[in-house]
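Researcher: Structure for this, please.
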Amino acid sequence: MKLNLSTTTFAAYIGIDWADRKHDIALYDPDTQTWSHQMIDATPSAIADWVNQLRQQYGSAPLLVGLEQKRGPLLYALCPYNNLVLVPINPRTVANYRKAFQPSRAKSDPIDAKLIVELLQKHGDKLDIWQAGCPKHRALRQWVESRWMLVGEKVRLTNRITASLKSYFPQVLDWFEDKDTLVFCEFLEQYPDVQAAQAATASQLTQFFRVHKVIANQQSVVGLCKSRQQAHP
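Model: Predicted structure, token format:
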């Protein structure tokens, strides 16, 4: 849902530049036309204390909160508070906005927090309000996002292993189609280079694949044996 500032009045506009260990916060109060800045720890207790401070100051009045995050612990930590209207903003949007109005293009977390507030005020019609959904929906979304993070990490590690093997053991990349399997990892542990693989007997290699119940790699065993025979006629 798009943000419509012409039909909604907010008691304060808040921009949060988040990080793993701390969050920089800029707050603009339209009644007093004043700015305030603070930094809090990136912990659930620190976030809860900060929200309680807002409640003491503004009660249950709606507060517009922009954060440079489309998902993650900060967003989920803030979504239970009904008076906080959350607007996730793409980090690239903030970076491009900074480049347009900051000639030095130097990143500063307090400045970015203030720029997020300006984006909310001046370009709210182009931003979407985050819809939290029911608790089960939020939990499912977190699990899905965690899974995708793990998949991305697996791909990153597999690419690093593949790049490393190309320099000293490229043969094994042809012998195994899937590089993210237990059998591939254990094969590398048992035969860390081509010399170790060639030194193994055909029965040893066959037994290895039988233990792992991998029939498709029997051809790889034959290939290893041929390589060994060619290297040691």
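Researcher: Any notable elements?
Model: The radius of gyration is 28 Å. The first helix runs from residue 44 to 58.
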